[in-house]
Each structure stands twice: as structure tokens, then as C-alpha cells.
Write a structure and sequence with these properties.
The chain is an alpha+beta fold and 101 residues long.
């Protein structure tokens, strides 16, 4: 089994929009690609973090999903909205994320 976790920091005052966006991403991937992502937030420590967690049977299953997502123009447009910043940008997007890969 392969377990992957993607984390992001939440900008101050943006928790609600970050949580909503995180669930939108998870729902979209489930509906369009059949992959389940869990949306997680810490119980202790820094509360301004959020994560997506997924489990795959093998690396081939993960590679297939990654290829599908990269070819999915709707997903790519969704990802490049101002709600979530890409990892090479140092600014916080309006949705409240600071991504870290």
C-alpha cells in the first residue's frame, strides 16, 4: 500500500475558505477519477494547516491518477484559480493557502 499526504498552510483568517476549497478538490477527484482523498486538519500543534491524504494499492495506481489529473484541463484550471497558490509562488492566494510540496 502507498500512502501520500499533500499539506498546505492556511493564511490567517482564511480557514473557512481553505477548508471549503479542500473539500471541493476532494469531491471533484472522487467524482471525476474515483480516487478518495481525505481532508485532514491537526488536533494539536499549528492549527493553520490542512492536508489531503490518499491511499493506493501500488505505485501504478498512483501514476495512473497523476496522469489523468495532468490531462484533466478542468482540474488544472481549478488548481490554478486564485484559491490555491502553486508551490513556486511565495505569495498567499486569496483562498488562504500557502502550498508546500
Amino acid at each position: 500500500m502507498i500512502a501520500l499526504t499533500r499539506t498546505a498552510s492556511i493564511a490567517p483568517g482564511k480557514t473557512s475558505s481553505a477548508v471549503a476549497y479542500s473539500h471541493q478538490i476532494a469531491k471533484y477527484i472522487k467524482e471525476k477519477h474515483g480516487a478518495t482523498l481525505e481532508v485532514l486538519m491537526p488536533v494539536g500543534g499549528n492549527p493553520a494547516r490542512i492536508a489531503w491524504h490518499a491511499r493506493y494499492e501500488n505505485l501504478g495506481q498512483w501514476e495512473t491518477l497523476t496522469g489523468e489529473l495532468l490531462a484533466d484541463m478542468e482540474y488544472m484550471a481549478f488548481r490554478s484559480t486564485p484559491t490555491c497558490s502553486s508551490p513556486d509562488r511565495s505569495t498567499t492566494a486569496s483562498g488562504g493557502f500557502r502550498s508546500s510540496y
